Amino acid sequence: MAKTIPRIGSRRSGRIGSRKNTRRIPKGVIHVQASFNNTIVTVTDVRGRVVSWSSAGTCGFRGPKRGTPFAAQTAAQNAIRTVVDQGMQRADVMIKGPGLGRDAALRAIRKGGILFTSIRDVTPMPHNGCRPPKKRRV
């Protein structure tokens, strides 16, 4: 009575769940979040599903070296390497944050062989911000 579920792979061939890299992604969105302490590069498809990501911390940089432009460049190269193999050619770039790695990450993405369709700065800006604390009485 119960239907058997068709198997994707067999245990003998040792290739269970190897369908991950079969998806071709011609266009995507690259999010660069550059703070003063770290730079995080996330590559998604057009629908927003994460394909690849990397940060300066995962690339092996520790402490104050994570906020450097070279660390951001290395993180961008690591994130881009896998999606270029999957066929990504064009991408929108969203940059957030005031960090030093903004320009270095952009240069590394461009050097990796991805053409920019648009570059947007999505850094959050307060319209009036929080209410300041009361003045100190003397």
Describe the protein in words:
The chain is built from two helices and five strands. It is of the alpha/beta class. It has a domain at 27-113: Ribosomal protein S11/S14 (Nucleotidyltransferase, domain 5, 2-Layer Sandwich), CATH 3.30.420.80. Strands 3-2-1-4-5 form a five-stranded mixed β-sheet, covered by helices on one side. β1 and β2 form a beta hairpin. α1 (69-85) packs parallel to α2 (101-111). The protein is extended.
Name its key features.
alpha/beta; Nucleotidyltransferase, domain 5; single chain; five-stranded mixed beta sheet; 2 helices; 138 residues; extended; plastid
Percent helix, as a range, is: 10-25%
Rounded Rg: 20 Å
List the helices and strands in order. Answer: EEEHEHE
Largest sheet: 5 strands, mixed
**Total of helices:** 2
Number of strands: 5
Determine the strand fraction and express it as a percent band.
25-35%
Net shape: extended
Indicate the structural class: alpha/beta
